Amino acid sequence: MHEMSLAESVLQIIEDAARQQGFSRVRTVWLEVGQLACVEREALCFSFEQVAKESVADRARLEIVEVKGQGWCSHCGCHVPLPALYEPCPDCGNYQVKVTDGDQLRVRELEVE
Amino acid sequence: MCNTCGCGNGQALIAGQALRKSHKSGGAMRFRVPEGGAGHAQPEAGTHHHNLLDYGAGAAGAHAPGMSQSRMVRIERDILAKNNEYADGNRNYLAERGIFALNLVSSPGSGKTTLLVKTIKELHGALPLAVIEGDQQTENDAARIRATGAPALQINTGKGCHLDAHMVGQAMQRLDLQDDSLLMIENVGNLVCPAGFDLGEAHKVVILSVTEGEDKPLKYPDMFRAASLMLLNKCDLLPHLEFDADLAIAYARRINPDLKVIRISATSGEGVPELLDWIATGCRNAAARKQASKQEALIE
């Protein structure tokens, strides 16, 4: 349940931005969450709702933008889609695939007022 | 802090004392300056260009003085950025002192502490070392390490499920670490949460015991991906079990093709010399890098 820590980090980023940018309320938060990121989305949404209470982001809508997993197959020498860490290369069936994208966890942007 | 699971620093303790509050700023965030100047509606209705002050992008589509209007703020910041800043600080601190740090991760009950005690005993004081122990509660593990004569500090995470870089940074300051030494950090027994939290270590070492399932690497892939070394522990029990060690290793390498594996047993001592060699190499390299960067600094 590290999602609670992650939700707190999201709120910290929002509060830093609120101080620097001078906004007092957040309506929507867009999070970029990679398909391969070590996070449970439902738990993250629930946690964020809890930690955001009585903050600038109280009742803010959380929009999660999924980034597809991608890997480099050393056997085929090319990038391939990788929907899960344990999946093989869809072309050659080999497991020598290294993650190149889709493991990110980022706050992309905010709708504020 | 959290009533649900307690993650965060609220109940975390180092050697029984509360953590200091962090006063470090999160570093500069990048905000984009509006291309057409702040306060102007964007030419293309319905699109926003990630600007700070786009009054035209709100629900009303235009700005009127005094009217509440939302705007978009581009953030582009990693959620784990703050932890990673602390981790980088820890890594620099360790590098300057030539300290080789390992982050030991596994499920509860895989034999991390027993293996740690065995490793310390087998080193016979050949290498200065210190241990940071992470558990939700009790000082039992730190006491087990101290019984070997090695300095150890216990971090209690309260209800928290992992160590973070801020906790470890504070623990390092209290340990009075020696130059060119070994630091072993035993994380909270949890095969999920510690995977995402860099502590500033050189390597994560994942311990899988043969009394668990072979498919654990597939069930908990993040940790096996994050680790550089897997210790397949309790191998002395293999004759009594139906555990397929080759299959477990093959599963782990599906997740992480570069994963180094040592079959080990704290009871029989199998694999321990190989682990000691691996540690000694890491320590030599960390000390050599420290010397090299000192010399570079002198030349400059």
Strand line-up across the major sheet of chain B? 2-1-6-5-7-4-8-9-10
**pLDDT average of chain B, as an integer?**
83
Morphology of chain B: globular
Largest beta sheet of chain A, briefly? Answer: 3 strands, mixed
In terms of quaternary structure, what is this? heterodimer
> How far do the termini of chain B sit from each other?
48 Å
* Rg for CA atoms of chain A: 17 Å
% residues in beta strands of chain B:
15-25%
Write the topology of this structure.
The complex is a heterodimer of chains A (113) and B (300).
Chain A: H1 3-21, E1 26-34, H2 41-51, E2 61-67, E3 70-73, E4 78-81, E5 97-101, E6 105-112
Parallel strand pairs in A: 1-2
Antiparallel strand pairs in A: 1-6, 3-4, 3-5
Chain B: E1 13-14, E2 17-18, E3 71-78, H1 81-96, E4 100-106, H2 112-123, E5 129-135, H3 140-146, E6 152-156, H4 165-175, E7 182-186, E8 203-209, H5 216-219, H6 221-226, E9 229-233, H7 245-255, E10 260-263, H8 272-299
Parallel strand pairs in B: 4-7, 4-8, 5-6, 5-7, 8-9, 9-10
Antiparallel strand pairs in B: 1-2, 1-6
Helix pairs in contact in B: 1-4, 2-8
